[in-house]
């Protein structure tokens, strides 16, 4: 294993850690806007540690949604980590229950991308561990900064924060709808459908329920294509 | 919502998300790697994140309201299209929301 390849893996891991740190500040601020105290915001980053689910949970609570609707939207977004885990299991080959319990907490978009992109199993493991450790440390520190900072804001700053939260969701969504994304036309159709379902239901259902209900728009994706069936078989 | 209820939501949601991660490392791959399972999981984030964008921008309780949030979102979309970094996108959206708030109150 050459030193330069190891260095590149570590550089990518640390670069990602710094980038998600900015999202951590935004999450801490969004959690404060939703009525969570800074310790609850920090507990989410320590225990949940999966950004889109965390944003969804506080987003639904902030919109006046119930606990079950907030948890439901977080869990629906968390399902993709299950698929990541399946992809990572042969690369990480966790030996023993304790190691598996520990590694599981770091199974997220970024660590999966780092591990899958690495040229061999040893580097995949290194990328996963270095990325997981960096992102976990930075994400939790910046969550606390964002939560404490937002708690000190006045009314105009709260209006600013109200505009920041939807922009943060748009930034999470954007890479899935950008040119070059997998099955771009399908993703755009599903996204438009999800937004339409949510807005149409808003006057009729308790706050937050329309977000969970928007998952029916996935039906617009249609059946798996034949080549995907072959690839999976 | 009381602080105790919020703590319950945080802990239950976190435990559920952790178990979803652990399941991936623990169940046989064949259970998850079915074409329709991966297809649904691939597109769930698009549907949910778009719903969250729409609701966070326009919903106010059970009504729909056009305010500074929509202006902020439009500016954010423009910034994203121009490949601005995340922090710039959020700062511009926030500044727009604050500006509309100051101008309309």
Automatic annotation (TrEMBL), chain A:
Domain of life: Bacteria
Segments passing through the bilayer: 12-35, 55-77, 128-151, 157-174, 195-220
Membrane topology of the entry: Multi-pass membrane protein
Transport among keywords: yes
Family note: Belongs to the AzlC family.
Keywords in alphabetical order: Cell membrane, Membrane, Transmembrane, Transmembrane helix, Transport
PANTHER family in alphabetical order: INNER MEMBRANE PROTEIN YGAZ (PTHR34979)
Keyword Thylakoid belongs to the record: no
Name used for this protein in its record: AzlC family ABC transporter permease
Matches recorded under InterPro entries: Brnchd-chn_aa_trnsp_permease (IPR011606)
Pfam family, one: AzlC
From TrEMBL, chain B:
InterPro entries: Brnchd-chn_aa_trnsp_AzlD
Pfam families: AzlD
Domain of life: Bacteria
Keywords recorded for this protein, A-Z: Membrane, Transmembrane, Transmembrane helix
Membrane-spanning residues: 6-24, 36-58, 70-103
Entry protein name: AzlD domain-containing protein
């Amino acid at each position: 294993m050459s030193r330069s390849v190891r260095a590149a893996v570590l550089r990518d891991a640390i670069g990602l850690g710094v980038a998600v740190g900015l999202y951590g500040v935004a999450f801490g601020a969004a959690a404060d806007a939703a009525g969570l105290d800074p310790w609850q915001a920090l507990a989410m980053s320590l225990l949940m540690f999966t950004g889109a689910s965390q944003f969804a949970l506080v987003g639904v609570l902030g919109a006046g949604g119930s606990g079950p609707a907030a948890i439901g939207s977080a869990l629906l977004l968390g399902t993709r980590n299950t698929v990541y885990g399946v992809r990572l299991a042969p690369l990480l080959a966790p030996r023993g229950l304790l190691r598996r319990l520990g590694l599981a907490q770091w199974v997220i978009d970024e660590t999966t991308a780092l591990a899958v992109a690495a040229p061999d199993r040893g580097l995949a493991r290194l990328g996963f561990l270095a990325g997981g450790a960096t992102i976990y440390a930075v994400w939790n520190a910046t969550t606390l900064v964002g939560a404490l900072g937002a708690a000190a804001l006045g009314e105009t700053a709260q209006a600013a924060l109200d505009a920041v939260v939807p922009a943060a969701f748009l930034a999470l969504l954007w890479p899935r709808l950008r040119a070059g994304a997998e099955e771009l036309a399908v993703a755009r159709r599903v996204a438009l459908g999800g937004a339409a379902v949510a807005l149409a239901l808003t006057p009729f259902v308790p706050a937050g329920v329309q977000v969970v209900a928007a998952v029916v728009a996935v039906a617009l994706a249609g059946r798996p294509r034949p080549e995907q069936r072959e690839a999976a078989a | 919502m009381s602080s105790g209820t919020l703590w319950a939501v945080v802990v239950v949601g976190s435990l559920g998300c952790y178990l979803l991660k652990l399941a991936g490392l623990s169940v046989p791959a064949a259970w998850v790697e079915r074409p329709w399972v991966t297809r649904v999981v691939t597109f769930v984030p698009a549907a949910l994140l778009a719903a969250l964008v729409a609701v966070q921008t326009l919903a106010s309780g059970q009504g729909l309201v056009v305010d500074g949030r929509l202006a902020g979102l439009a500016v954010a979309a423009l910034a994203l299209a121009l490949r601005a970094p995340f922090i710039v996108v959020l700062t511009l959206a926030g500044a727009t929301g604050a500006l509309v708030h100051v101008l309309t109150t």
